[in-house]
Design brief:
By secondary structure, the chain is an alpha+beta fold. The protein is built from three helices and three strands; from the N terminus they run H-E-H-H-E-E. Helices cover 19% and strands 9% of the residues.
Length: 96
């Protein structure tokens, strides 16, 4: 269960499937950030679309609660981009 869902506050456009960047958060402590598993390639791809990317940015839906990050503090960026993987359809507009 990711930080976003655990806190029951964050709502992501993709429902936590790592297909958008709406749950982008910034880990305040580099020690906590370093204690987390490395972001996956999919997470890094979505983070590239996030507003206000930092060295300690993560997607809340991908950060699993663990003893090693007990007490972690995060903040939200000042803005959010609602960009999803499905928004990139080769320039074709969806009908409907």
């Amino acid at each position: 269960m990711g930080i976003q869902h655990r806190q029951n506050q964050g709502k992501s456009a993709c429902g936590g499937s790592c297909a958008c960047s709406t749950c982008h958060l910034i880990v305040e402590s580099s020690e906590h950030y370093d204690a987390m598993p490395e972001p996956s390639d999919d997470e890094n791809d979505m983070l590239d679309l996030a507003f206000g990317l930092t060295e300690t940015s993560r997607l809340g839906c991908q950060v699993k609660m663990a003893k090693e990050i007990d007490g972690v503090k995060v903040r939200l960026p000042s803005m959010t981009r609602n960009m999803q993987a499905g928004d990139f359809s080769g320039g074709k507009k969806k009908e409907g």
